[in-house]
């Protein structure tokens, strides 16, 4: 008997140790699984927030500058020396898609490189006109600006030429001036007629031009200005806001999917246990009432009713 008792105690301790080890292993696996799942969720939320900010940045921020060369064309006169028409040019910004962003203001500037020649000095003031049109030829806007070469006195020209002779001889510099003509300060794109073509016309027959180009620069303001000039601060704030939003959406989704199941399972368990208890109590009460009725019927004396008596008619 003692051997059987000792064996039972040993078996109980072994089973208890095995159960404890199994519980510890299951707890470790559950903790590892939850930790890995939580880490994956956090990494996913962070990357989704970064992706949302990058997508918003490229969708919201316009291209800062567009630059195109302007190649002037003209017709020569055969009878007289010079030009028979005004120097003109056509620049195609885009063929089909929209280049400028709707609602964004742009500054359009034309840079004209003119030689410091006696002809240009004699011309003095000249006029440059620009016409903006859509792909169907509809005139969206037009603008004209005037300018001239910067004036230099004879003394200033002599001193400037004396010091610049080495650069002129080596080709590092030339006797020319770059004239800046701001055609539009706050040009805004028309949604119905997006600009695709720009036409230039220099209103002077005798002007001499080295080269020309057009720059379209976006005038950033508000949130766009902050995002461009303070990119790190804007990125931190934007990604942080996206983190809060994505985490809130994920929490609400998790609660909607898994929280409802937990809420439903617990009341069902409670209702199941209480329902069974109530049913058992109800059955026991019914059994007791039935037994009481039977006992009463057994011990009560037999009574006759008037309806049960059969009296023969006389």
Write up what this structure looks like.
There is one protein chain. This protein is an alpha+beta fold. 50% of the residues lie in helices and 21% in strands. It has helices spanning 2-60, 118-123, 154-170, 223-229, 231-299, and strands at residues 65-70, 88-92, 105-115, 126-133, 139-147, 176-188, 197-202, 211-218. A hairpin with a 5-residue loop joins β4 (126-133) and β5. It is elongated, with a radius of gyration of 47 Å.
Features:
single chain, 314 residues, 2 domains, 5 helices, alpha+beta, Jelly Rolls, 4-stranded antiparallel beta sheet, elongated
CATH class of the largest domain: Mainly Beta
The percentage helix is 40-55%
Separation of the first and last Cα atoms = 90 Å
Overall pLDDT confidence: 80
Number of helices: 5
The computed structural class is alpha+beta
- CATH architectural arrangement of the largest domain: Sandwich
Beta-strand proportion: 15-25%
**Annotation, overall tally of beta strands:** 8
The description of the largest β-sheet is:
4 strands, antiparallel
Q: Could you say how many structural domains there are in total?
A: 2
**Low-pLDDT regions:** 269-279, 294-314
Summarize the topology.
Layout: H1 2-60, E1 65-70, E2 88-92, E3 105-115, H2 118-123, E4 126-133, E5 139-147, H3 154-170, E6 176-188, E7 197-202, E8 211-218, H4 223-229, H5 231-299
Antiparallel strand pairs: 1-8, 2-7, 3-6, 3-8, 4-5, 4-7
Helix pairs in contact: 1-5, 4-5
Membrane topology: Multi-pass membrane protein
Main location: endoplasmic reticulum
Keywords: Endoplasmic reticulum, Lipid metabolism, Membrane, Transmembrane, Transmembrane helix
């Amino acid at each position: 008997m003692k051997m059987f008792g000792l064996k039972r105690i040993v078996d109980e301790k072994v089973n208890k140790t095995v159960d404890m080890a199994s519980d510890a292993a299951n707890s470790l696996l559950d903790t590892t699984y939850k930790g890995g799942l939580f880490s994956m969720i956090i990494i996913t939320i962070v990357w989704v927030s970064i992706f949302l900010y990058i997508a918003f940045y490229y969708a919201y921020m316009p291209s800062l500058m567009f630059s195109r060369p302007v190649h002037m064309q003209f017709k020569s006169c055969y009878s007289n020396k010079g030009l028979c028409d005004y120097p003109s040019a056509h620049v195609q910004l885009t063929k089909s898609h929209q280049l400028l962003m709707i609602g964004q203001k742009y500054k359009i500037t034309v840079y004209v490189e003119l030689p410091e020649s006696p002809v240009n000095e004699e011309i003095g003031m000249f006029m440059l006109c620009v016409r903006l049109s859509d792909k169907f030829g509809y005139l969206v806007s037009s603008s004209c600006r005037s300018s001239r070469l910067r004036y230099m006195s004879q003394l200033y020209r002599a001193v400037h030429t004396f010091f610049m002779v080495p650069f002129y001889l080596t080709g590092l510099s030339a006797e020319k001036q770059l004239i800046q003509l701001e055609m539009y300060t706050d040009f805004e794109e028309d949604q119905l007629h997006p600009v695709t073509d720009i036409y230039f016309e220099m209103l002077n027959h005798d002007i001499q031009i080295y080269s020309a180009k057009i720059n379209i620069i976006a005038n950033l303001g508000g949130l766009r200005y902050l995002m461009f000039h303070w990119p790190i601060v804007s990125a931190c704030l934007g990604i942080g806001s996206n983190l809060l939003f994505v985490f809130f959406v994920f929490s609400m989704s998790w609660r909607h999917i898994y929280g409802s199941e937990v809420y439903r399972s617990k009341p069902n368990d409670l209702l199941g246990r209480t329902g069974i208890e109530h049913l058992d109590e109800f059955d026991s009460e019914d059994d007791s009432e039935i037994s009481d009725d039977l006992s009463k019927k057994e011990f009560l004396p037999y009574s006759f009713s008037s309806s049960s008596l059969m009296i023969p008619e006389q």
